[in-house]
Write a structure and sequence with these properties.
Elements (H helix, E strand, L loop, with lengths): L3 E5 L4 H10 L6 E4 L12 E8 L6 H12 L7 E9 L5 H14 L2 E2 L5 E4 L7 H7 L3 H18 L9 E6 L7 H13 L4 E6 L13 H8 L9 H12 L2 E7 L7 H13 L9 E8 L4 H15 L9 E5 L12 H13 L4
Parallel strand pairs: 1-2, 1-3, 3-4, 4-5, 4-6, 7-8, 7-9, 9-10, 10-11
């Protein structure tokens, strides 16, 4: 069996050409989604090469999602990237976020920025093509090849005395999310050095959309025009961290305003830094429902966009409303133990 598996639903001429360029000289095996249920791909490096039609979903894509969700260990020890080719301007990112959570929950590791997407017009590649001084078509080919090269070169990290930044904006007295994270930290504390920062402590400004020139100017010194606790406290701690844990209670099917401000403000930090070597974990608690929506948002913003690695089963999701109910939920102790053990596996 080849170490590199390319999963596809259908090969259009454009996607076939992109794959031919990206995989040239690489030993690989093409595998139709129709054969996935009968094939064991665990331990492989995987390229999800998906063609997205006019309406976003087709029967093969739905079957893939169902397979990933019904078989929670079917991608154990896999590392994967995604090449999503659209026929219209919509649905590529939406499907990428859904597949990221589903595959990750089935045991898949995603390196930072594991997605190359192309809308029908390739207009989403306009800025990148200007930076590379290439046509839209050549930019697509270049990014696809780079994606496969990064996948093949990737190996999971291991840290000596890892440092973790625990970031939240919750009230200690009432937070179910903090209750869960405290139990996780108690289990990993002998191997991890943990720094906790609350975004409630100090004024947090959201990104106001500075020009690229202004953002770049401040980014070269790991700063941001709007300053505040994010620049003074969070950015230095994040640069030093091997692991970031984001605590994300569900606010109207989204992360909280302060967590969103942190994510948006990361743009300036990425001018000078990348986080390809930093693991991302998260705890998501919903009072009613929707934890999966928030988890997809976190994975999309931080891994697909901001370059953080997504280790297998990166998120613990729990429904809990009244204070203290999360830690009384059925099976919560076992799930906390499992998450802590997964985190400890990256510590020497």
């Amino acid at each position: 069996m080849s170490d590199l598996v390319v999963l596809f639903n259908r090969l259009t001429p454009r996607l076939e050409g992109v794959l031919a360029h990206a995989l040239s000289g690489r030993v690989h095996r093409l595998l139709s989604l129709n054969r996935l249920a009968e094939t064991d791909i665990r331990g492989s490096k995987v390229v999800f090469a998906l063609c997205v039609g006019e309406y976003g979903l087709d029967s093969d894509i739905v079957k893939l999602l169902l397979h990933l969700r019904k078989h929670p260990d079917c991608m154990d020890n896999c590392v994967a990237v995604m090449l999503i080719d659209g026929t219209v301007e919509l649905y590529t990112k939406h499907l990428a976020q859904m597949f990221t959570l589903a595959a990750n929950s089935a045991g898949c590791f995603f390196p930072g920025k594991p997605l190359v997407e192309a809308t029908g017009s390739l207009a989403n590649l306009t800025i990148m093509s200007k930076r590379l001084n290439m046509s839209l078509e050549d930019t697509y080919l270049y990014k696809a090849r780079e994606l496969v090269d990064r996948l093949l070169d990737f190996s999971a990290p291991s840290y000596e005395n890892p440092k973790m930044l625990l970031l939240h904006a919750s009230e200690k007295r009432t937070s179910n999310t903090l209750d869960i994270s405290s139990e996780i930290c108690a289990r990993i504390g002998q191997k991890y050095t943990i720094k906790e920062i609350s975004l409630r402590n100090g004024q947090v400004h959201d990104c106001r959309g500075c020009s690229y020139k202004t953002c770049s100017h401040f980014g070269t010194t790991n700063e941001c025009f709007y300053g505040g606790s994010i620049v003074e406290e969070v950015f230095p701690a994040l640069i030093e961290a091997n692991v970031l844990m984001l605590l994300c209670p569900n606010y109207n099917d989204s992360v909280s305003a302060n967590i969103m401000a942190f994510i948006n403000r990361l743009t300036s930090l990425l001018i000078k830094n990348t986080f390809f070597d930093t693991l991302l974990y998260s705890v998501v608690v919903s009072g009613y429902s929707g934890s999966d929506i928030v988890a997809q948002q976190v994975a999309g913003a931080m891994c697909l966009n901001k370059t953080f690695m997504l280790p297998p089963r990166f998120v613990l999701m729990q429904t809990a409303n009244d204070p203290g109910t999360a830690m009384r939920a059925q099976g919560i102790t076992e799930r906390i133990d499992n998450m802590a053990n997964r985190m400890l596996s990256f510590a020497k």
